[in-house]
């Protein structure tokens, strides 16, 4: 493809997107420009052939697809800074939490295809789930953006009103899964493994469990039934976790996170 991509905001997610784009060969590294005020931290991407700069205006001018990956409170000023460079060739993709398509439309003030995409950091290794909604885009423009995120993992097209929920489940979810894995590693060390082996076992076990659901299309409880030998050790462990509020604490955490987005 010949489109040039500008990633405005080369932080945790912006760099993960750049890494994923390079790995997937969706585009050549020299078709990507990534910006931040202090671009010195982007040297690794520069070594791979990506253009790094603090100049949003030139990055936008020289691109067709603009991915906004700054923090929510920064977006209005950032768009204001490059707004004059936006022309009919541009498509805007925002991965910013809590900023709606209509907010973006007000900031951009031009009739351009606008996308909200909610990926997670596994986009760096093409294993994201990216929830997408959009406005003002043709079928061709939409399929270009969807194809791009499909090369970076899986895509769910969703109603925009579910975007905050998608943020919590899909994007924050990476951190929640990591904490679950970390707790397993801590427990694994207590019952005898060195940290490295405990980490391998915990991570591969979670990966295998997720793959069972994705490949079999089954419900978690069906897979649990296959593991819980009657009178065995799994059910004893699971029930103790539930007595201690395992599912309840996860549900409450997800809802607290969701309420935080609504409050901001
Ligand atoms: N991290 C995640 O897993 C996810 C994050 N998001 C959303 O993505 C966005 C980015 O999050 P995250 O990457 O974690 O945040 P970071 O703080 O890591 O990244 C934001 C980046 O924006 C840069 N920046 C700030 N001002 C400007 C500017 N004027 N021009 C260009 N770049 C600028 C900052 O660098 P500098 O200070 O050098 O300018 C920083 O590197 C947020 O809106 C977040 O809600 C969504 C899904 C997942
Ligand atoms: O913590 C945050 O606000 C961002 C949104 C999703 C993941 N990180």
Folded structure, characterized:
By secondary structure, the chain is of the alpha/beta class. It folds into two domains: 5-158, Rossmann fold (3-Layer(aba) Sandwich); 167-263, ProC C-terminal domain-like (ProC C-terminal domain-like fold, Orthogonal Bundle). The protein is built from eleven helices and eight strands. The protein has an eight-stranded mixed sheet, with helices on both faces. β1 (5-8), α1 and β2 (32-35) form a beta-alpha-beta unit. Bound molecules: NADPH dihydro-nicotinamide-adenine-dinucleotide phosphate and (2S)-3,4-dihydro-2H-pyrrole-2-carboxylic acid.
Summarize the structure.
This is Pyrroline-5-carboxylate reductase. The protein is 53% helix and 14% strand.
By CATH, the superfamily of the largest domain comes out as: NAD(P)-binding Rossmann-like Domain
Please identify the top-level CATH class of the largest domain. Alpha Beta
Question: What's the alpha carbon Rg, rounded to whole Å?
Answer: 21 Å
Domains (count): 2
Give every kind of bound small molecule, once each.
Answer: NADPH dihydro-nicotinamide-adenine-dinucleotide phosphate, (2S)-3,4-dihydro-2H-pyrrole-2-carboxylic acid
Approximately how much beta-strand content do the residues carry? 5-15%
CATH topology of the largest domain: Rossmann fold
The CATH architecture of the largest domain can be given as 3-Layer(aba) Sandwich
